[in-house]
Structure to design on (274 residues):
């Protein structure tokens, strides 16, 4: 058995140390969510001496985090649905359908990857105000769907181009139209890419703060990041409740990634190969 080199041992120790430093804030957040207010202020130990679910229960119900959770779920779910429906059709069109200006439009979408989203925040806010969308969930969903366009179009076009053309020709010979070929042949084969795009859309949408902070003024429409900000902006912050709110915010994202990890990795691998 080959013994590891000195540099290998140093690299291993450095990676373990980095992992511990990176994970400690998350572990402290989880620990504080199960402590009462006094125990959090006492500090020190990571494992709660008097573990309690009361903090999570209060944050979930009394502080209306359930309502904010539903708002975030609605915005994220409709955004992901819109992205998958619209850009799977667009990706198929760019990959398989000949039309004037196809290459120009495709590369125009790709070029939008290099435009910082913060640069369009002001004109977007003015436009939404004139359209009567400012302060509504639709005013969040539409920009989120639009903002995912470059990456989604790029990945889905590559995924559809990777499908052998013979399948398209055989389906056409059987009398299938483009929509049926798309639905029956190409879409099932692109499932890993669709799931990857869904995850890459859901996570930033779920965590989005800047646009929601600018757009939403009605507290009943708040998403979880705004609810967490409101929780942390009190005169005397309750750190155990803030950590409980943070835990409620991050757990769905972690569960989503763990549940779809295999498809996510396959989707990224396919995108890189293509």
């Amino acid at each position: 058995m080959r013994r590891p080199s000195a540099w290998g041992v140093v690299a291993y120790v450095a990676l373990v140390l980095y992992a511990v430093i990176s994970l400690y804030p998350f572990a402290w957040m989880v620990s504080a969510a199960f402590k009462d207010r006094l125990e959090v202020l006492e500090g020190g130990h990571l494992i709660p001496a008097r573990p309690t679910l009361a903090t999570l229960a209060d944050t979930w119900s009394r502080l209306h985090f359930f309502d904010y959770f539903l708002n975030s779920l609605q915005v994220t779910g409709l955004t992901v649905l819109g992205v998958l429906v619209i850009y799977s059709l667009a990706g198929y069109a760019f990959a398989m359908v000949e039309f004037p200006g196809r290459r120009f439009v495709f590369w125009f979408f790709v070029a939008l990857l290099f435009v910082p989203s913060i640069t369009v925040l002001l004109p977007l806010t003015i436009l939404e105000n004139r359209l009567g969308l400012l302060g509504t969930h639709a005013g969040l969903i539409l920009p989120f769907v639009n903002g995912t366009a470059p990456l989604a179009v790029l990945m889905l076009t590559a995924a559809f181009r990777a499908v052998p053309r013979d399948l398209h020709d055989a389906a056409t010979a059987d009398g299938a139209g483009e929509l049926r070929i798309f639905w029956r042949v190409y879409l099932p084969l692109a499932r890993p890419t669709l799931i990857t795009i869904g995850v890459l859309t859901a996570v930033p949408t779920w965590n989005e703060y800047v646009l929601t902070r600018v757009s939403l003024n009605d507290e009943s429409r708040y998403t979880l990041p705004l609810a967490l900000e409101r929780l942390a902006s009190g005169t005397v912050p309750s750190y155990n409740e803030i950590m409980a709110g943070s835990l409620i915010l991050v757990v769905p994202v972690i569960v989503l990634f763990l549940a779809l990890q295999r498809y996510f990795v396959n989707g990224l691998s396919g995108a890189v190969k293509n």
Remarks:
- Residues 62-273 form a domain with the MetI-like fold fold (CATH 1.10.3720.10).
- Residues 83 and 146 are 8 Å apart (CA to CA).
